[in-house]
Amino acid sequence: MRMICSQERVVENIEISPGIFKLTVKGEFEAKSGQFYMLKCWEDGLVLPRPISVHELNENGITFLYAVVGKGTNLLSKLKKEDEVQIMGPLGNGFDVEKIKGKIAVVSGGIGIAPMHYLIKNLKDCDIDLYAGFKAVDYSVDNVEKNVNEVKISTEMGDIGHKGYITELLQPEKYDLVIGCGPEPMMERVINMCKEKDVPVYVSMENRMACGIGACLVCTCKTKDGNKRTCKDGPVFDGRDLIFND
């Protein structure tokens, strides 16, 4: 798959929930489910491009779903229609969708739902349940409802769905495979639950990244085979290979 680095035009950049934006860029792109692009729309060399996972990809362009959490994503949120954005990718490895079969639990936490939309769309011969956890307000769930059997939602304050964490609803033993993306504490919990029930688990990690190509080692994570670069060796890992800090 060919990597590109180019300036492209914004189709839309809309706030779909407080602090959550959906950015669509026109052009011809490629990506596997779980891969990401590096985006930049500023000249300040001290602010690095931001890694944003692929949310949707079709003949009209590519769409990213992102949370405003720092200076870089705040600048991205200011983009208007027809503005230019620098885009480099696809980067990282992705999910091997051809090998994913059977009854699947897809578990997301917060903005971790972003890459799950494109993944679910590309899974074949699977019975999928979506478990989506949020702080207070859910978003983007309606985009995948038609492609899954059941949707379970949790919010920390109980405004929508189950009050508490989404892992409180998950029963790994009911599935052939669990796939997750979200904050590290949530991913650690999902992996441990799957290990206890001897259920395979794949996760897309959200480690901070700088270069996106494996050169700077900022996004290193620990595995049973030594340190791995999340941007280059991941972001998709076999969860049973990961080692978390105590």
Q: What tags apply to this protein structure?
A:
246 residues; Elongation Factor Tu (Ef-tu), domain 3; Rossmann fold; six-stranded antiparallel beta barrel; 3 helices; 16 strands; globular; iron; Dihydroorotate dehydrogenase B (NAD(+)), electron transfer subunit
Provide a descriptive summary of the structure in words:
With 246 residues, this protein is mainly beta. It has 2 domains: 4-91, Translation factors (Elongation Factor Tu (Ef-tu), domain 3), CATH 2.40.30.10; 97-243, 3-Layer(aba) Sandwich (Rossmann fold), CATH 3.40.50. Helices cover 12% and strands 39% of the residues. It has helices at residues 71-76, 114-122, 184-197, and strands at 4-17, 20-25, 36-40, 50-58, 61-67, 84-91, 102-109, 126-134, 150-155, 162-163, 177-181, 201-204, 220-223, 226-229, 236-238, 242-243. It has a 7-stranded mixed sheet, sandwiched between helices. Strands 1-2-5-4-3-6 form a 6-stranded antiparallel β-barrel. Strands 14-13-16 form a 3-stranded antiparallel sheet, with no helix packed on it. The protein is globular and about 50 Å long. InterPro entries: Cyt_c3_hydrogenase_gsu, Dihydroorotate_DH_ele_sf, Dihydroorotate_DH_Fe-S-bd, Dihydroorotate_DHASE_ETsu, FAD-bd_FR_type, FNR_nucleotide-bd, PyrK_electron_transfer, Riboflavin_synthase-like_b-brl. [2Fe-2S] cluster binds at residues 211, 216, 219, 231. FAD binds at residues 50-53, 72-73.
